[in-house]
Amino acid sequence: MKLTCDEASAICDKSQYNEASFWEKIKLRVHLFLCKKCGLYAKQNKIMSTCLQKLKDSEYPKTQHLNQDEIKYLEQELKTKIES
Amino acid sequence: MAVTDKQFLNPEKWVSLHADYLFNYTIGRLNDRDLAKDLVQDTFFSALKAKGNFKGESSERTWLIAILKRKIVDYYRKINSIKGKAEVRMNFYADGEREGEWLEERVPTDWSGEIEKKIENEELALVLEKCIGKLPEKYAIVFRMKTVHQIETEDICKELDITTSNLWVIIHRARTQLRKCMEDNWFKN
Known about the structure:
- The structure holds two protein chains of two kinds.
- Chain A has helices spanning 5-15, 22-34, 36-59, 68-83.
- By secondary structure, chain A is mainly alpha-helical.
- Chain B folds into two domains: 11-83, Rna Polymerase Sigma Factor, Chain: A, CATH 1.10.1740; 104-187, Winged helix-like DNA-binding domain superfamily/Winged helix DNA-binding domain (Arc Repressor Mutant, subunit A, Orthogonal Bundle).
- Chain B has eight helices and no strands.
- Chain B is elongated, with a radius of gyration of 21 Å.
């Protein structure tokens, strides 16, 4: 039942993705009740998730494309291979 | 023996039809333009060599993606074996009486003042990117796939050929390291 800080913070990380099991969450709660350091970690971890959501939002619409030169280069290279 | 819905390969058109798609797929996972270009090219070359193995049961693109995925795993394995060992920054005591407790210098400290404002600040994404960039590369790959691109755990494990518990260990280490990095560079006054 007792968790180390390492284990507790690992479960806390997992729960940021909603993938911690029921028992893990119970054990985490008990640990957080007793351990200030991990309490702080848990709180900051939530803030980190918010930050990462921002990063995701800023990155997502940006699909990256190959430019014309790069496409031409790939085409050329592949062509040589096909012909050889 | 032409069966109507059997798929055929058309290498002359690969670049125009699939290069950009494969490129974008790769960069979502590895976040490195040059590397992504190399892997796409490698994929075409391997595909050309293996043309005879194409059974026409899937589409050309699906087949190419399968080859590309293998290239990504190979790359992941390579960096895993070259420099995966030494650069892990520990956050917890690894053994002794205090095993599993926070290392003194890694203990979270209070993030004082104006957290809200700091989250809204546009430079946040840049600093975060930098911190992700400081992670060991194999951590960064897994972390990015899971967190930024929100690929399912199961799919990441399949794609990189790692176990679920392996994935969570990596995510855990990445997140504790990131927290520390953001504390030092952004949240602490």
